[in-house]
């Protein structure tokens, strides 16, 4: 079969469509390769199918041209990577492609299943899309659930149709490759869509993870993002990955997201030696009653300890905080921001609490009459809470960004830490950042 794999882009506003991570590319001034779509490509090629992948976001191809390219390829199937913020346009694209067998994939297919039910998509895949798409190519129709028990059985994502130069880190301009280490999460935070998408967690083996890194280093990539919900949840795997990187002498650096209760100084020191330069933690709000209301299953002290220990290990920290959570007030949110500033946390991202379909937060928000509009993404305020209106939350978010990033000491630290070659990327990403976040 001939299969066209599309990561469509509809406006100048580009979106990252990366599993549950569906946000404006300008949020971090960076774009990541669409590894799930690239994984589907490898899976299909391994089975003997002919494929072409087009990342319209990276190559700035708009819908008209995409449709032309699809026509030129004469595919038997067209796979479309969808996401919540562009759901309307994704469904319209399926309408335009009515003459083809279209397959929708991406986290949105499970979250807004009812929209896909009424759509023109020939088939809709949720779960592990590599397996789901293959089932469709083999004849399955309607809603198809994909599941891969052994993640190591998957071939590495295909980089054949990807230009790695399109995916760089803000500030440094280094090429960045995400490596999907595992899927799912064992926790159940009320605001998170991961438990809706995947119950429990599964991981790859260390040998396979490091082999993928080695393959990419040969393409000139030495900067990686270990993409999974909680990288250090599987301590045995992390230790093995780090030891293998050290043993093989790979000159790589990497970052990973994780949870505060799964790190300690011994592990952090090993990670640092293996090239870890940054860890992101969901700090959400440093107020116990807010964490408890969100079922975060973490104490404020655990989060603070993990952040400080990470910094002490010489690893930079990104703090992800959420504005508008149940029981959150202006005061306890600002206390959180002040703590991050006082403790010199390196980067912070302030998202709005968003009642994503299927989440417990949506049920709570609905019951309390907090929802003010349909949620499109974490960058847009779509619900209030008992203490703050949407307008107040937007002002508070802007204040948090100003307080955190526009301190003379912070700006100075950023500038003196720059290598000359990084100056232009730094200016570009700062302007992007200003344009995106600091709306006063
Ligand atoms: S620990 Fe992280 S990934 Fe897991 S449910 Fe909570 S927020 Fe989501």
Proportion of β residues?
15-25%
Q: Average pLDDT across residues?
A: 91
Q: What order do the strands of the largest sheet run in, or round the barrel if closed?
A: 4-1-5-6-7-8
Total of domains: 2
Bound molecules: iron/sulfur cluster
Q: CATH topology of the largest domain, what is it called? A: TIM Barrel
Total helical segments: 18
CATH superfamily of the largest domain: Aldolase class I
Distance between the termini: 53 Å
Short synopsis of the structure:
The protein has 440 residues and is an alpha/beta fold.
Walk me through what this model shows.
By secondary structure, the protein is α/β, with parallel strands linked by helices. It has two domains: 2-152, Rossmann fold, CATH 3.40.50.280; 168-437, Aldolase class I (TIM Barrel), CATH 3.20.20.70. It has 18 helices and 16 strands. The chain has helices spanning 35-46, 56-59, 63-73, 87-96, 108-111, 113-117, 129-137, 194-197, 206-217, 235-248, 265-273, 288-293, 300-312, 330-342, 360-368, 390-405, 408-416, 423-437; strands at 2-7, 15-18, 21-24, 50-55, 77-81, 101-105, 123-127, 142-146, 177-180, 182-185, 200-203, 223-227, 253-258, 276-284, 316-323, 347-352. It has a six-stranded parallel beta sheet, with helices on both faces. Strands 9-12-13-14-15-16 form a six-stranded parallel beta sheet. Helix 10 (235-248) links the parallel strand 12 (223-227) and strand 13. Helix 10 packs parallel to helix 11 (265-273). It binds iron/sulfur cluster.
């Amino acid at each position: 079969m001939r299969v066209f794999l599309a990561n469509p882009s509809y406006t100048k506003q580009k979106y990252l469509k990366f599993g549950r991570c569906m946000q404006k590319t300008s949020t971090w001034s960076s774009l990541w390769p669409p590894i799930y779509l690239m994984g589907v490509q490898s899976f299909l090629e391994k089975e003997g199918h002919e494929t072409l992948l087009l990342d319209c976001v990276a190559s700035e191809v708009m819908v008209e041209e995409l449709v032309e390219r699809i026509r030129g390829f004469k595919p038997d199937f067209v796979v479309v990577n969808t996401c919540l913020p562009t759901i309307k346009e994704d469904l319209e694209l399926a309408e335009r492609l009515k003459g083809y067998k279209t397959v929708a994939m991406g986290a949105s297919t499970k979250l807004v299943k009812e929209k896909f039910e009424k759509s023109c998509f020939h088939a809709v895949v949720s779960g592990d899309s590599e397996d789901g798409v293959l089932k469709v190519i083999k004849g399955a129709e309607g809603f198809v659930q994909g599941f891969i028990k052994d993640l190591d059985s998957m071939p590495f994502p295909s980089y054949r149709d990807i230009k790695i130069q399109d995916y760089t880190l803000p500030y440094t301009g280094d090429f960045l490759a995400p490596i999907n280490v595992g899927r799912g999460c064992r926790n159940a935070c009320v605001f998170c869509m991961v438990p809706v998408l995947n119950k429990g967690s599964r991981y790859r083996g260390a040998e396979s993870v490091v082999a993928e890194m080695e393959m990419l280093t040969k393409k000139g990539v030495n900067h990686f993002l270990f993409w999974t919900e909680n990288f250090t949840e599987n301590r045995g795997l992390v230790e093995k990955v780090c030891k293998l990187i050290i043993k093989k002498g790979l000159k790589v650096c990497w970052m990973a997201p994780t949870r505060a209760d799964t790190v300690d100084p011994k592990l952090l020191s090993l990670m640092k030696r293996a090239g870890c330069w940054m860890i992101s933690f969901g700090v959400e709000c440093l107020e116990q009653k807010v964490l408890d209301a969100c079922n975060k299953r973490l104490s404020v002290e655990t989060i603070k300890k993990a952040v400080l220990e990470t910094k002490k290990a010489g690893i930079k920290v990104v703090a992800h905080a959420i504005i508008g959570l149940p029981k959150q007030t202006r005061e306890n949110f600002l206390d959180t921001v002040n703590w991050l500033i006082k403790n010199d946390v390196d980067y912070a991202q302030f998202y709005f609490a968003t009642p994503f379909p299927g989440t417990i937060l949506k049920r709570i928000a609905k019951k309390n009459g907090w929802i003010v509009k349909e949620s499109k993404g974490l960058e847009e305020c779509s619900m209030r809470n008992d203490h703050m209106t949407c307008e107040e939350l937007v002002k508070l978010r802007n204040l948090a960004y100003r307080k955190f990033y526009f301190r003379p000491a912070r700006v100075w630290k950023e500038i003196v830490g720059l290598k000359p070659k990084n100056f232009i990327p730094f200016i570009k990403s700062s302007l992007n950042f200003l344009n995106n976040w600091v709306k006063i």
